[in-house]
């Protein structure tokens, strides 16, 4: 599904290397987790994959089902099946949540040469999916993320994911700012989307999210590289011992 | 103080070609307006009130040519709205293209027909509000209009109008220089919506005076369309009695030079006045909103909401003033003017002013200009919305606060759809 090879990335404005040769291969239907201390490059990886400005790829490639993501505009990556759930979802005053969702769904359909969703059909689907995420009609009507609590914003991200039906989902610190109940709700939303044809990359500091979204593979990232890869037990190890031992081992 | 010789000459040259129609109540009002104009002279670039907008082409002896603009690829604005259509071609009323003037609760007459009579209700309104509006700031182009307008409509509303009155301005001659003057009088408890759209003329000078009696409600929604070479100066003068409501919204796209002035007096207690505008300008575009709201009554509310989206060197101007007179306690005044600059060549010039002589009032104003929010743009694109569509969404979102000032949802939707269409085009 996602094949990252020797990815080197630096900040455009300062001559600072953030990713120093990341290799990662995620198969269809797999859930991978990346853990790591602050500043290890986890969020940079998610931004570079989704096409945010301000980063320069100096080496390497990132292919989604064989197509080079790094050559595409952000909207083309989305249409190709990539989705990033933001750590800090953006507030857009003046744009209704429904308008936003419908525009996005239909833009992707159009880009893929599929028929656009009618207003009626869209409404039916969005209401159904919103209900399972406990997103009420009022929240759908409000401007995108404006006045939403931290939990509401994250649930709104998952709703977008459910509507857009991406093949590769990246969750960037989706657990940040969530209380236990909200984390459970968000995780259930994610788990409901797990399927054979859909893969996940879950970026997190803490193991607790991985209690809810069970990963197949866990990677530890430090100083712009993946320094260790293992099963779910690796996350537990981090939880008990912190990153210090692993970092010492990795260097 | 006597006018400088140069100013006298310029004025004489400008009005030499205009016909002054004397006689009747209207002739008297025109004469008084001409006297006011003579004392003021035409506006100049050095006048404080014209600091950001050069009036040269608005006052030139001969109107600059403007090619006709055919927007035949889109339906006219307000097309789907049930209304009484009244058509002016290059500033002249066209009865053949217009609907019947009969509308329950509304009397509509042509200025050209009513002027010759000895007595008319409009004698108490024509050029009366314009004259009041000359203090403390001079508006010579409005006085010129009062003195020389030969056409326009006199509308008196006694009840609740069943549908909007729609003024449609057609531009047929590349050299037309139109002067129109409308008077609208809403009697106690009456209600009326006026719609305006169309390119009007190569140069257009329009005045609308609106007298809103106790408890009456007036709505005004105007679209100044895509005719690139338009030069227009418009004034709306309004006077509000107790608990009267006045709401005016203008959508503007393109136009070499547009100056829209609104001069509003809240005389009665508990009156409400909202003026709003949304403008999108691309390239050779200069748009000026100049607003003066005077609070004289108790507990009155006023809002000014103006938004402009500018690119490729377009210029936006906002001069907005709230004057709260002594004794106008519990005034609630709000003013916001904002611009979204899509590139570094465009500019927004704003002069917000508050002048307050009462001690128990709430007045706020804000003015900002900024670029498009890159984070929001990326967020939209990351969801698959292409660059251009994402920009369009953010532009519409920016203008939304002004469009929200339109009370009628059907009309607001029509304006929104129009704007979406314009934004989807390359030329607007």
UniProtKB/TrEMBL annotation, chain A:
<feature type="domain" description="ABC transporter">
    <location>
        <begin position="2"/>
        <end position="248"/>
    </location>
</feature>
<dbReference type="Pfam" id="PF00005">
    <property type="entry name" value="ABC_tran"/>
</dbReference>
<dbReference type="InterPro" id="IPR017871">
    <property type="entry name" value="ABC_transporter-like_CS"/>
</dbReference>
<keyword id="KW-0067">ATP-binding</keyword>
<dbReference type="InterPro" id="IPR003439">
    <property type="entry name" value="ABC_transporter-like_ATP-bd"/>
</dbReference>
<dbReference type="GO" id="GO:0016887">
    <property type="term" value="F:ATP hydrolysis activity"/>
</dbReference>
<dbReference type="InterPro" id="IPR003593">
    <property type="entry name" value="AAA+_ATPase"/>
</dbReference>
<keyword id="KW-0547">Nucleotide-binding</keyword>
<comment type="similarity">
    <text>Belongs to the ABC transporter superfamily. Ycf16 family.</text>
</comment>
<dbReference type="InterPro" id="IPR027417">
    <property type="entry name" value="P-loop_NTPase"/>
</dbReference>
<protein>
    <submittedName>
        <fullName>Fe-S cluster assembly ATPase SufC</fullName>
    </submittedName>
</protein>
<dbReference type="InterPro" id="IPR010230">
    <property type="entry name" value="FeS-cluster_ATPase_SufC"/>
</dbReference>
<dbReference type="GO" id="GO:0005524">
    <property type="term" value="F:ATP binding"/>
</dbReference>
TrEMBL record, chain B:
<dbReference type="InterPro" id="IPR037284">
    <property type="entry name" value="SUF_FeS_clus_asmbl_SufBD_sf"/>
</dbReference>
<dbReference type="InterPro" id="IPR055346">
    <property type="entry name" value="Fe-S_cluster_assembly_SufBD"/>
</dbReference>
<dbReference type="InterPro" id="IPR000825">
    <property type="entry name" value="SUF_FeS_clus_asmbl_SufBD_core"/>
</dbReference>
<dbReference type="Pfam" id="PF01458">
    <property type="entry name" value="SUFBD_core"/>
</dbReference>
<dbReference type="GO" id="GO:0016226">
    <property type="term" value="P:iron-sulfur cluster assembly"/>
</dbReference>
<dbReference type="InterPro" id="IPR011542">
    <property type="entry name" value="SUF_FeS_clus_asmbl_SufD"/>
</dbReference>
<feature type="domain" description="SUF system FeS cluster assembly SufBD core">
    <location>
        <begin position="172"/>
        <end position="398"/>
    </location>
</feature>
<protein>
    <submittedName>
        <fullName>Fe-S cluster assembly protein SufD</fullName>
    </submittedName>
</protein>
């Amino acid at each position: 599904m996602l094949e990252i090879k020797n990815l080197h990335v630096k900040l455009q404005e300062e001559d600072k290397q953030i990713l120093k040769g990341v290799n990662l291969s995620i198969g269809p239907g797999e859930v991978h987790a990346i853990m790591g201390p602050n500043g290890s490059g986890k969020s940079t990886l998610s931004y570079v994959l989704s096409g945010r400005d301000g980063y320069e790829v100096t080496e390497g490639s990132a292919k989604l089902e064989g197509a080079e993501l790094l050559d595409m505009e952000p909207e083309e990556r989305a249409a190709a099946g990539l989705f990033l759930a933001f750590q800090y979802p953006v507030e857009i005053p003046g744009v209704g949540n429904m308008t936003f969702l419908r525009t996005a769904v239909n833009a992707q359909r159009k880009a893929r040469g599929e028929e656009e969703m009618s207003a009626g059909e869209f409404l039916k689907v969005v209401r159904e999916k919103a209900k399972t995420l406990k997103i009420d009609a009022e929240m759908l009507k409000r401007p995108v993320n404006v006045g939403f609590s931290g939990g509401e914003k994250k649930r709104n991200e998952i709703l977008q994911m459910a509507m857009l039906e991406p093949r590769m989902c990246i969750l960037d610190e989706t657990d940040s700012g969530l209380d236990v109940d909200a984390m459970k709700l968000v995780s259930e939303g994610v788990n409901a989307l797990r399927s054979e044809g859909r893969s996940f990359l879950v970026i997190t500091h803490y193991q607790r999210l991985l209690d809810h979204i069970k990963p197949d593979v866990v990677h530890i990232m430090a100083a712009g590289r993946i320094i260790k890869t293992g099963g779910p037990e690796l996350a537990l190890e981090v939880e008990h011992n912190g990153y210090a031992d692993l970092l010492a081992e990795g260097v | 103080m006597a006018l400088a010789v140069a100013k006298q000459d310029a004025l004489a040259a400008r009005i030499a070609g205009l016909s002054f129609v004397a006689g009747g109540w209207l002739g008297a009002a025109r004469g008084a307006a001409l006297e006011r104009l003579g004392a003021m002279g035409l506006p100049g670039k050095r006048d404080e009130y014209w600091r950001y907008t050069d009036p040269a082409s608005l006052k030139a002896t001969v109107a600059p040519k403007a090619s006709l603009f055919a927007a035949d690829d889109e339906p006219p604005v307000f097309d789907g709205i049930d209304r009484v259509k009244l058509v002016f071609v290059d500033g002249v009323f066209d009865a053949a293209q217009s609907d019947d003037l009969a509308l329950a609760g509304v009397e509509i007459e042509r200025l050209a027909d009513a002027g010759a009579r000895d007595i008319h209700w409009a004698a108490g309104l024509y050029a009366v509000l314009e004259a009041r509006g000359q203090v403390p700031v001079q508006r010579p182009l409005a006085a010129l209009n009062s003195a020389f307008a030969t056409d326009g409509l006199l509308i008196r509303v006694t009840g609740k109008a069943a549908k909007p009155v729609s003024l449609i301005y057609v531009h047929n001659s590349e050299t037309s220089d139109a002067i129109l003057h409308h008077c609208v009088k809403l009697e106690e408890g009456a209600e009326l919506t006026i719609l305006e759209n169309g390119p009007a003329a190569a140069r257009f000078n329009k005045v609308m005076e609106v007298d809103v009696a106790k408890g009456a409600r007036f709505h005004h929604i105007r679209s100044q369309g895509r005719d690139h070479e338009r030069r227009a100066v418009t004034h709306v003068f309004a006077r509000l009695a107790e608990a009267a409501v006045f709401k005016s919204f203008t959508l503007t796209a393109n136009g070499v030079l547009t100056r829209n002035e609104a001069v509003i007096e809240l005389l009665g207690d508990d009156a409400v006045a909202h003026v709003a505008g949304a403008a999108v300008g691309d390239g050779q575009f200069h748009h000026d909103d100049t607003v003066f709201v005077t609070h004289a009554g108790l507990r009155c509310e006023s809002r000014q909401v103006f938004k402009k989206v500018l690119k490729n060197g377009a210029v936006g101007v906002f001069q907005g003033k709230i004057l709260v007179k002594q004794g106008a306690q519990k005034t609630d005044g709000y003013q916001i003017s904002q611009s979204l600059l899509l590139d570094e060549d465009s500019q927004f010039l704003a002069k917000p002013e508050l002048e307050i002589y009462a001690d128990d009032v709430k007045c706020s104003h804000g003015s900002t200009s900024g670029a498009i929010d890159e984070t929001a743009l990326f967020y939209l694109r990351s969801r698959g919305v292409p660059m251009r569509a994402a920009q369009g969404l953010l532009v519409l979102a920016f203008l939304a606060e002004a469009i929200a000032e339109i009370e009628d949802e059907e009309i607001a939707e029509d304006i929104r759809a129009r704007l979406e269409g314009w934004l989807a085009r390359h030329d607007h």
